[in-house]
């Protein structure tokens, strides 16, 4: 059984929650989300937000919070071989109420079909929020090039603009 070693990133200004399935071996070693250099997550969200790609863990945390994003994974612990999503068994989900009780989450997005599968199976009934599935940024998702990923993922920025304009007291930075 492997236990998720990375704490969620969020604050009370977070408006959207992005969920992966479970961190890769490289991410677990690095101690932060999407740590494998081949994963396109940071390139995609930086492009969507018209910002430089954050490099350090602190830059990544600041980027997420500045852009009103919370990030975590659906799975708290599981049996997994390496980083293979298809090998995941004996899932114990993360308790998303930790984030949902203190952040003003309006929408949940899942990064790929595996995250969607486990979100629907274990978590959706507890949150009452349907998640929008975005194409996986994993290098294993070779059918999606960077340009197509950025195009699909741009929905997060549209959501943030809409949410922030509906809350007149909220200042949207980007």
Can you describe this structure?
The protein has a four-stranded parallel sheet, with helices on both faces. Helix content is 36%, strand content 18%. The protein has one domain: Uracil-DNA Glycosylase, subunit E (3-Layer(aba) Sandwich). With 174 residues, it is of the alpha/beta class. The protein is globular, with a radius of gyration of 15 Å.
Shape: globular
Order of helices and strands: EEHHHEEEHEHEHH
Secondary-structure arrangement, i.e. CATH architecture: 3-Layer(aba) Sandwich
The CA-CA distance between the termini, in Å, is 41 Å
| Estimated share of beta-strand residues | 15-25%
The residue-averaged pLDDT reads 91
CATH homologous superfamily designation = Uracil-DNA glycosylase-like domain
Unreliable residue stretches: 167-174
The main sheet comes to: 4 strands, parallel
Structural class: alpha/beta
Q: Provide the number of structural domains.
A: 1
CATH class category name: Alpha Beta
Percent of residues in helices comes to 25-40%
Concise account of the structure shown:
The chain has 174 residues and is α/β, with parallel strands linked by helices.
């Amino acid at each position: 059984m492997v236990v998720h070693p990375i704490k969620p990133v969020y604050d009370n200004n977070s408006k959207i929650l992005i969920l992966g399935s479970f961190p890769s071996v490289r991410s677990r070693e690095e101690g932060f989300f999407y740590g494998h250099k081949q994963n396109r997550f940071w390139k995609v969200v930086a492009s969507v937000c018209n910002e430089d790609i954050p490099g350090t863990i602190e830059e990544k945390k600041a980027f997420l919070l500045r852009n009103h994003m919370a990030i975590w994974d659906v799975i708290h612990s599981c049996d997994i071989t390496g980083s293979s999503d298809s090998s995941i068994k004996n899932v114990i989900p993360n308790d998303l109420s930790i984030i949902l009780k203190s952040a003003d989450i309006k929408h949940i997005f899942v990064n790929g079909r595996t995250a969607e599968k486990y979100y629907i199976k274990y978590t959706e009934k507890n949150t009452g929020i349907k998640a929008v599935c975005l194409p996986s940024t994993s290098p294993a998702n070779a059918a999606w090039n960077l340009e197509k990923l950025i195009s699909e993922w741009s929905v997060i920025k549209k959501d943030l603009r809409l949410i922030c304009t509906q809350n007149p007291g909220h200042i949207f930075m980007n």
